[in-house]
Specification:
This protein has a single domain, classed as Non-ribosomal Peptide Synthetase Peptidyl Carrier Protein, Chain A, CATH 1.10.1200. The protein has four helices and no strands. Helix 1 crosses helix 2 and helix 1 packs across helix 4. The longest helix has 16 residues. The chain is globular and about 30 Å long. The mean pLDDT is about 95.
């Protein structure tokens, strides 16, 4: 299931940022060009798709696709 979640997060990032070939180690801002509004949209999509609310302070600590996955996994495991 962890692999499935990572694949789902990668597809979500690809869709939200209009990029193909996203990897877990890609940096959202530096490598994929995400801006603050993109991060807000990612957080909203995570909430809609996974039912996980991400606080602004949590989003500020997300730098890579893997970071986003780890945060969503942590929230899902904690609920």
């Amino acid at each position: 299931m962890a692999t499935e979640l990572l694949e789902d997060i990668i597809r979500l990032v690809e869709l939200q940022l209009g990029r193909l070939g996203v990897t877990a180690s890609d940096r959202l801002a530096e490598d994929l060009g995400a801006e603050s509004l993109d991060m807000v949209n990612l957080a909203a999509a995570v909430d809609e798709i996974f039912g996980v609310f991400l606080k602004e302070s949590e989003i500020a600590r997300v730098f890579t696709t893997q970071d986003l996955h780890d945060l969503v996994r942590e929230k899902l495991d904690g609920s």
